[in-house]
Amino acid sequence: MHGAEEAPQVLLFDEPALAVAQQWMHKVLSQAAKEPPSEVFKFFRRETTVHIVNQANVFSKTAFSSREDSIQCIQCTTILYNRVLHTVLLQQPTDEFGDTAAEAVQNIVFNTTFQHALMACIVELVSFTATGQLCFPALTARLNALGCIMAMWEALLYVQHTLLKGVDLPDSVQGYLGYMRLRLTEEIAWMQGSPLFNIMAEGGGGTFRPGDRTLLQDFLMAVSQLAMSRAQQAALSLIDRLEELALIPTFVQDCLATVDAMLLKHLDLLFNQHLSRLVSCCVYGITRMHNVVVSIKRVNQAVATAAPHHGMELFQADSEDTAEDTGQPVRDIRQLYNDVFLPRMRAFLQQKERPSEEPKKKGGPAKLSRLPLRSLSAKDINFRPQFQKKRLALMR
């Protein structure tokens, strides 16, 4: 189920697309009513079957019991859960007779983190097909499953793989699976309480594959691809509107190089932060280094255009970061740039700075020396305790 993939892209849903998603859910229910019990139960002894059924029932009832269409939502969740779990088990190691090894079955069925992640993915998807609302990860949070966020990245691959083999999967349903992966990539996996830090420190590994770095590598590749795509679109948008930037042949490449440097050397900036805010800092930093006067609001608008599922409100929201010199919360994107991003990226950006003797189109030189230069001791890898430094090297 692993393999490098394109960065997840968001699909905006109109009313006809949502209607098709609801029709798909009804098809799943009607088809299941005509079929024999799920083949997944062939893997289990009676006591394990009881455990699986009870686990799915409790989780889905907790998610949907207050809804008018709760019975349909619970049934659809159970059907999809059984199908995806069957797919997961079929891909595990086999014994000498070609059957899935009993130990592998036990490792998956009784792995609470993966099971909760798998069910959270499915209830979020069923909720979308029933309501048409893009509310991920609201249900996951209400079910106290945010600690399974990184396992959801893995589980979503299985969900998508399974559903593509079944009843014709509408673009809107497939798009919502992509939307969930995108939200994980750009923000949710980096939120406080996420297990991502520990997974990085321990060297990666899937939920039931300790030591396997592939899943972590795929996730970080998706982060890089998404950040690069967003930065490129924002840079091209600015070039279309500002002649000064259009005269700089390396502007787009410089923006991409800055994003790459940030992810390579200062990946921990993403913790408790939204990817779009840091992409905006990268693009804005390059405009400053080329001595082109562009408001940070205009850069934010260009980045928001590249990510239409969120608006400008993202850039006004308070950050989880604190300024090193004052210890006060970072209140907006400008302070994030000055007090958090620039101290870490100053040396790299200076390499891109236009020589002082080169004529400028507009504005004065970028006065980096007046800005805070201290690193954030709570965030900067270089200021972490020695034992953490060694473990965090895996981020690079």
UniProtKB/TrEMBL annotation:
InterPro entries: Cyclin-like_sf (IPR036915), RB_A (IPR002720), RB_B (IPR002719), RB_fam (IPR028309)
Basic and acidic residues composition bias: residue spans: 351-361
Start and end residues of each Retinoblastoma-associated protein B-box domain: 222-346
Pfam families per the UniProt record, alphabetical: RB_A, RB_B
Signal peptide (from-to): none
Domain of life: Eukaryota
Domain Retinoblastoma-associated protein A-box: 22-200
Chain positions covered by the region annotation Disordered: 351-373
PANTHER family the record matches: RE32990P-RELATED, RETINOBLASTOMA-ASSOCIATED PROTEIN RB -RELATED
Protein name: Uncharacterized protein
Lineage: Eukaryota, Viridiplantae, Chlorophyta, core chlorophytes, Trebouxiophyceae
